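Open question from group meeting: does this chain pack into something compact, or does most of it stay loose? Before anyone orders reagents, we agreed to write out a predicted structure and look at it together. Recording both the input and the output here so the notebook holds the full record.
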Amino acid sequence: MKTLVLAILTLSFCHAWAIGDEKENGGDVIVCGTGDSSSYELLDLYEAKALHRLDLVPPQGTALADIFEQRMKALEGIDATRAALYRGYMASFMAEARFVPNSDFTDIPDEGFKAPPAGCTLRQIVVQYDIPTPDGVRYMVNQDLWSHLDEENRAGLLIHEFMYREGRFAQNNFRTSSGVRYFNALVHSTKIARLSLQEYIVEMRAIGYQEVVVQAEPVVLFVWNADKPQKIVQDIEFHTNGKVAKATLANHFFLPGVSKDEITCHKAITDEHSIYFFESGNIATIHIGCGDVAYSFKSGDVSGFSFGSTFTYDDAGHIYNIFTENSQAAIFRYWSSKVHISGMLFEKPSFASVTFYENGLPSMVETSTTKHWFYEKNQQSQWQSFVPQYGRVMLTPDGDIQTAAH
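Structure tokens returned:
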């Protein structure tokens, strides 16, 4: 019996894998009339006019690629990161799509509220898998319906699929495609160009996207409670000029001056994970609520690094201070031909702070204790060690010692 059960489970798994992920979704087309007099229109574009009362921007050009790019430029004006994501999806679409002739796809009940015209039918034109099939197919496309769409509706359909592909990420709030259809309608309309950043953020939170990139950093619009039955709105504060002043930072972000690679936290997002901006839009402070990050610096013969959880910048983008406290180990190291400073603090509570000159070199190193760290200065080729009494060393802009409390 055990062998039989195992075999059945194995076959079931193989069947699901062979056809792709079972969590499908896809776009819909409204078909009105019969025979040669039939008309075909993407549900999103019909709802844009009939439900949302939006004025659509006419397509520029007749090629699908040109119309798609026109819509991405409209989105790019307020959300360049999202436009770039959809352009990436577009680049791989044909390689991931399979056009199926002589078919009638079973409807996937993911539309939520919908209101097609009386006397018309709603037809499923695309089935999209969360996980592609083993041969790389993510989109199953009804070829017969596709052949009846003009290029404007085809471009709109692809944008719908790409928006839903992002929307299906676990952190987002998409139970139906109604939010995607509205977002697609918005991008096709004159309204997208009139939205302020604050208005756009309100729209994206209502649609169901958890994140928006503002001023080069991803911020969170809402978080989920423990069981994910409801979302908790994360407030975003704005300067009077419309730029973001404070927000909750996403758990993947970029730290200016560290590297060009994205940093990822593997803990739940909290209010402590925050970012502050100057009125100019430049980053003022990043506070990491999920651990410390190593910051490395080098100028001339001076090198060093410091672990930090709070990173403060000036309005010109220069690092001003790195601070960490109550971490497992406050670690720092600074060295040149003139001076060595290093330490590792294991006591709790503990803190380490490194303040910088505009040239990127440390101006002061300060810690909560003098244990487990040392300072050495090269005097006439003789290294002399000190243990600063108050855990503080001041440095000159060229890296020499200025004062040391010892």
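Observations to bring back to the group:
The radius of gyration is 28 Å.
The first strand starts at residue 28 and ends at 32.
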